[in-house]
Amino acid sequence: MHIVVCVKAVPSSTEVKMDPVTHTIVRDGRESVVNPFDAAALEVALAIKDERAAAGEGCRVSVLSMGIPATEALLRDGIARGASDALLLSDRAFAGADTLATSYALSCGIRELGSAGMGDAAASGASEQRAAAPGSAAPGTPEGRAAAPGSAAPGAPEHGESAPGSSLPDLILCGKMAVDGDTAQIGPELAGLFDMPCVTDVRELVAIERGRVTVRHATDAGIELVEVPLPAVLTVAKDIAQPRMPSIAGVRAAAGVPVAVLSAACVQADPARSGLAGSPTQVVRSFVPERSDTCEVLEGSVPQQAARIIALAEEAGL
Ligand code: FAD
Fold first, then answer.
1. Pairwise pLDDT comparison (101 vs 31), residue with the higher score
2. Which protein residue's CA is at the shortest distance from atom 26 of ligand 1?
3. Is pTM, for the whole model, over 0.90?
4. Angle value at C-alpha 53, between 52 and 58, nearest 5 degrees
5. What is the Å distance from ligand 1's center to 77 Cα?
6. Which of 103, 211, 219, 311 is deepest in the core (most CB within 10 A)?
7. Looking at the domain assignment, is residue 318 inside a domain?
């Protein structure tokens, strides 16, 4: 069984700063942590891996992120906790991505994880950082494997297809939402790209057997028990599991495992579907809402207070 856990690096503080010119979130230079929902998703995957190991069965857990080079440390932490391997997609070509371009980039990474090369690396217990042809990686990003001439976008697989020699994972786990972006769109978008069933806001993983996964998930009407065939995408709630701490042995082992860091060309990402170019969302204006703590105590009779409320509402343009 192969499980891919999508892990997003989010700012450790709740204070969000926006670039006034590009209208994107300012991330550089700020400490990042793993999105708490994704930490829970990883724990779900590791629990499945433990169960399978106890039953003498294999299970590969891959952690995947699209982010800045520093995200590598968070992925290494995932390996220290028990993940089998990790892949970081890091390239200026991915910058400015909206959710559509982000899920597309992640889908390219998922296909790469299922490719023969990545599978072999995981089987041998080590992932790899591939050598790039000179000039193939974006400035300031880690170098990755260069795409063979003509092997990029045009030949990239369409929805629901695996690249030649590549196999899709049995399970893709995402957090229900990222605490900074907050759209909760990535999981369902990945399911759409791969034509897989998707269950959102999963609160309990009940069973995985006979090629099906059974879960309890939250809906507006309450908790629902559903069973879907594998491969599938699940997005999980934060309290589905308590993330384990990395063991000392795990930290030591992870220190020696290179995290694969690949560029857009390495994963055959279509430039027209990546980053700002592949983002149909137009941010017209972004701002942090101003909060005012002023309070007025209304005096006088009830009609006088009512008149004052109306005046205040009119002043506020309501
Ligand atoms: P959600 O859909 O809420 O996340 C759900 C789950 O998806 C997560 O729990 C996680 O499992 C997975 N996931 C989400 N993102 C990632 C990831 N990167 N790697 C791995 N797993 C992930 N953000 C920037 O950092 N830089 C930019 O320049 C930038 N430009 C933007 C431009 C536009 C026009 C827009 C609309 C957004 C931009 N963003 C940018 C925000 C970025 O698009 C979102 O953060 C991203 O698409 C994920 O959406 P979300 O945070 O709402 O994730």
1. 101
2. 96
3. no
4. 75
5. 21
6. 103
7. no
